[in-house]
Amino acid sequence: MLEANAIVAGYGAAEQILKGASLNVQAGELVTIIGPNGAGKSTLLKTIAGLVPAKEGKITLAGQDVTAQSALERAKSGFAFVMQERNVFGMLQVKDNLELAYSGPRRGFASARDAMMDRYPVLAQRRHQLARTFSGGQRQILAMAMALLTKPKILLLDEPTAGLSPKATNELFDAIIALRNEGMPILMVEQHALEALQISSRGYVLVAGKDAATGTGAELAADPEIRRLFLGG
Ligand SMILES: Nc1ncnc2c1ncn2[C@@H]1O[C@H](COP(=O)(O)OP(=O)(O)OP(=O)(O)O)[C@@H](O)[C@H]1O
């Protein structure tokens, strides 16, 4: 579904952050990227989404080369990126956030919105509330619903549980598991690395801008060296 090959990228003229990182996500897979702080995990997601330009390497989505596409073109090609912050329009009501995100034909909006509100009842209960009044967990659910309304081929999630309470974290993990079970391809960076690997088909360990190890989620979660170095022992 997604293939990123030998990606080199960074910010401005400074030293590159990504130094030849490669990964792939097959149809129906949930794939998690773990690694130390500053390894370039978020940068890799941003490069795949087209928000940071790749200086070298190739990115394909469902067989289509998207390397030269802008972020907007990539969104149209089927990427949906839930950024870590500022991922909803705080000054707008929930229902208007959903309407802005929807990209299908006009006549299909009401049913798509209602289906999303059935999936995430908090959005129906609070449809007239301004998004900025939402808790962190509610905001992430809204951001995910907005991403899903674009009918993506793959969902990119950047630290979806950052700053959330344990309860909200569990609820968000449940929402991610539900999407995985429906076969939605997902690539995520997640601070709860062990828990994320345990629900993932596969994982990649990114170190200093390169994919240093890969395996099934269960293999990486059980590897003593990876546990010691990257999963808090
Ligand atoms: N907009 C930016 N401009 C310049 N440097 C940046 C920018 N964003 C990130 N960086 C730098 O790029 C490097 C990699 O950051 P990135 O956020 O991709 O790492 P990460 O692996 O996701 O880390 P963390 O787990 O701490 O979020 C860091 O040194 C960071 O300071």
Automatic annotation (TrEMBL):
The keyword Transport applies. Residues 2-233 form the ABC transporter domain. One of its GO terms (biological process) is L-amino acid transport. It comes from the Bacteria. GO terms for molecular function: ATP binding; ATP hydrolysis activity; branched-chain amino acid transmembrane transporter activity. InterPro entries: AAA+_ATPase, ABC_transporter-like_ATP-bd, BCAA_Transport_ATP-bd_LivF, P-loop_NTPase. The keyword Nucleotide-binding applies. Keywords: Amino-acid transport, ATP-binding, Nucleotide-binding, Plasmid, Transport. Belongs to the ABC transporter superfamily. This is Branched-chain amino acid ABC transporter ATP-binding protein LivF. It comes from Ketogulonicigenium robustum. The gene is livF.
